[in-house]
Amino acid sequence: MPAFLDTDETSHNLAYDLQGWHYEELHPDVRLIVNEAEPALTPDVEQRVQAIWEDSRARRPKLFNGRIFCMKSITPDCVEGYWTEYRRALAQMVDPTIFGETPLHQLAVCGLLRCADGIVLARRHPASLYLGDFWQSPPAGTVEMRKEGQRLSLADQLLAETEEELGLMACEVSIGPPRLAVIHARTAIVDIGISLTTPLSFAALREKWQAGGNREYDQLTVISDDQLGNWCRRKDVIPTTRILLNTT
Questions:
Q1: Max Cα-Cα span within the chain
Q2: d(Cα 104, Cα 212) in Å, to the nearest integer?
Q3: How far is the C-alpha of 86 from the C-alpha of 98, rounded, in Å?
Q4: What pTM value is reported for the model?
Q5: Contact indicator for 166, 213 with CB cutoff of 8 Å
Q6: What does the pLDDT read at residue 155?
Q7: What is the layout of strands, in order, in the sheet containing 67-75?
Q8: Average of per-residue pLDDT across 105-118
Q9: Are 82 and 167 in contact (CB under 8 A)?
């Protein structure tokens, strides 16, 4: 676990149970540095990773083994890591113990999108590989190598997810600085929470989602500020989103 992430969730005086999820605030100008080598796998672990990948591909042929960013170390002002294959991260989602005491810390971005009518939430499709039927704050997704040699940018990653998941273009949103890092209890995924805004109404945003978004989510809703407390306490809301709502 990253050293700066507090293992005592009660110290945060949160109004809900994080159930093993931990978080810490980040500096607005936190840097991403790629300077670590990809860890080598033992033959036994490699065989298990490949078996999980082949089984998953048989059920979901569209899965793509792209390059994703995994965190090696993190402080409030710096995230260091390396590029690796998506199949390794998928294997860990299926079997969280596969890498023993050195799990992958797959990095992801998670937005908190405010439109003209309030904060937008989305329910993950029931058939999702991970956390199906849970509500979260879109857009969200793995930090990946979208183009060889491209500069690694959290804002660019979030913009790409915004277009893919919601059908919104870069000119329709404003992205704020990174706010916090949240580590998932079971999979060791690390979400970087980032606020973003759009002047669009929820009705207009929903229309764009229906016309141009992917099928990551099966429902969208909007909540007003006086509804934040209720959503923070709901157990079907992903903890990253509950933390972001609680610290809004």
A1: 54
A2: 32
A3: 14
A4: 0.88
A5: yes
A6: 94
A7: 31-34, 78-85, 67-75
A8: 97
A9: no
